[in-house]
Amino acid sequence: MDFTPEIKILILNAVILAVAYLGIYPSLQEKTLNRIMAVDVVLSVLSLIVAGGLFWGTGVAFTLLFFKTNWAVFAILTLFVMEVPLFVWFARKHGIDIFNDPDS
After folding, report:
1. DSSP designation for 80
2. Residues contacting residue 101 through CB under 8 Å, at least 6 positions apart
3. Is residue 15 included in any domain, yes or no?
4. Within the chain, how many helices (H) and strands (E) appear?
5. Number of domains in the chain
6. Structural domain includes residue 51
């Protein structure tokens, strides 16, 4: 089965987010905005490393709605769009105040 480049990155991002929100974030002792953001930076870099390993130097153009972009922009933007609803759900579920985090 051969997937389009866009689908490959979307699957990569979905797997990373599933591991984060079903495994890593729930297991944090203290669930605060700063701790989640720190882990999120590492996971975002992981997504870029894997996507870069797949597409760096290939010249593949990615379609992002109405324009073409490179693999890095596509990976970052789609990861962000996929994560926002998950983060809002997780923050509400665990009582994390997004605007007044006591850990910051």
Report:
1. H
2. 32, 33, 34
3. yes
4. 4, 2
5. 1
6. yes
Under the banding of pLDDT at 50, 70 and 90, the label for residue 95 is confident
Q: Which amino acid is at 22?
A: L
What is the mean predicted confidence (pLDDT) over 69-97?
92
Is pLDDT above 70 for 87?
yes
Tens of pLDDT, residue by residue over 33-69, are 889 999 999 999 999 999 999 999 898 889 888 889 9
Query: Does the model's pTM come out above 0.85?
Result: yes
**Residue 40 domain flag:** yes
Q: What angle do CA 20, 99, 38 make, to 5 degrees?
A: 35
Can you read off the two tokens belonging to residue 26? 């729930």
**Inside any domain, residue 38:** yes
Q: How many residues does the chain have?
A: 104
User: Whole domain around residue 20: which residue ranges?
Assistant: 5-93
Spatial separation of the C-alpha atoms in residues 24 and 2, rounded to whole Å: 30
Buried b (16+ CB within 10 A) or exposed e, 22-34: eeebeeeeebbbe
